[in-house]
Amino acid sequence: MRLRRDVRHFLTDPLDESEVERLLALAHSAPSVGLSQPWRFVRIETPALREDLAAHVDAQVIEAGSIYRGEEDRLYRSLKLHGLREAPVLFAVYCDEGTETGHRLGAITMPEARRYSCVMAIHTLWLAARTRGIGMGWVSILDRPTVDALLAIPENWRCLGLLCLGYPVSEEATPELERRGWEHRTDWHSTIVTR
């Protein structure tokens, strides 16, 4: 669990296709509200499309960084915030918010539970990948409508991010953002509220 890192530095070595299928099957075993299974994994294999996505995220990284000043700006610019060009496997993950699977059980009063279910699938994929020495990076610095248009996505699907999968350049027990001084993990006790 502690080796589950958000990987940005990937080796370009390919992943065995049977391994990718095994990971997707495990992700599909995640819990979902009403057994709706609303996750949709869009695999990006076309080199030109991959480059378009990487260029888009590069532009979004610059735009998002415009809020920082001084030392924080310098540190932000030094961070590698995606591995879209290096990771051998790339997915866009979507939530099918209009799925009829599950008959809307649990989603009538809390429709966002479908997105939470998709996050469970992503987390399951992430942990399963780590048990096999595979790293994953979740890229969220993007403009959803732009990514949707690039991928020709149905209107009722909601983008949750891009996932980069591959073997990490190095195994690290401490998150890169902590190693680089961006932030430090808080003590878990600080996140508990009692009423």
> Kindly state the mean pLDDT as a whole number?
95
Approximate shape: globular
Q: Which regions contain 5 or more consecutive residues with pLDDT less than 50?
A: none
Strand residue content: 5-15%
Briefly note the structural class of the backbone.
alpha+beta
Topology:
Elements: H1 17-27, E1 39-43, H2 47-64, H3 70-78, E2 89-96, H4 113-131, E3 135-139, H5 144-151, E4 157-166, H6 176-179
Antiparallel strand pairs: 1-2, 2-4, 3-4
Can you tag this structure with a few keywords?
globular; alpha+beta; 195 residues; 4 strands
What is this entry, summarized?
The protein has 195 residues and is α+β, with helices and mostly antiparallel strands.
Describe what this molecule looks like in 3D.
It comes from Sphingobium fuliginis (strain ATCC 27551). Residues 4-167 form the Nitroreductase domain. This is 5,6-dimethylbenzimidazole synthase. With 195 residues, the chain is of the alpha+beta class. It contains six helices and four strands, in the order αβααβαβαβα. The chain has a four-stranded antiparallel beta sheet with strand order 1-2-4-3, sandwiched between helices. Helix 1 packs antiparallel against helix 4. The radius of gyration is 18 Å and the shape is globular. 27% of the residues are buried. The mean pLDDT is 95.
